[in-house]
């Protein structure tokens, strides 16, 4: 599937899944805007398939609904075994591939994220109890926690509470690729760096 078709497919999933989530909550567009912090106009454009939100806006919507990010990127009728390893959400400097959509049994989802050179992504806090695991697959990156930037190299792993402001940046001349696993579990008080795979 070419990139244009992938984007069209993702926009369809976003539109359908936003409508479905809003319907399940019984929210109007106004109520949805209040809960997510995303404008009513933008939500309407997404539902009509006229706009594709940034990764940050999509996280904001998912957090407002208390749903995993992958809920909005995958077809809801399919099981985790059938779906989505090739679905891609791409912006100019970051791309996100869903490796495993949210699984209710394990309460986790996994993404492969590629940061292009000199790109920074700051994420708003996720829902309470979300723990993130970062595994650097290619290149080196920096992560932002507790108001400090620290380096992660290929093969290094980081685990931290996702319910705080955090970020990633690539200050190198080559793209950086990492896996990000979000899991709803207990919380951790301090980031834990695990060196080498």
TrEMBL record:
This is Transcriptional regulator, XRE family with cupin sensor. The keyword Transcription regulation applies. Signal peptide: none annotated. SMART domains: HTH_XRE (SM00530). GO terms for cellular component: cytosol. Residues 18-72 form the HTH cro/C1-type domain. GO terms for molecular function: DNA binding; DNA-binding transcription factor activity. Gene3D superfamilies: Jelly Rolls, lambda repressor-like DNA-binding domains. InterPro entries: Cro/C1-type_HTH, Cupin_2, Lambda_DNA-bd_dom_sf, RmlC-like_jellyroll, RmlC_Cupin_sf, TransReg_Diox_bact_type. It comes from the Bacteria. It holds the Pfam family Cupin_2. Keywords: DNA-binding, Transcription, Transcription regulation.
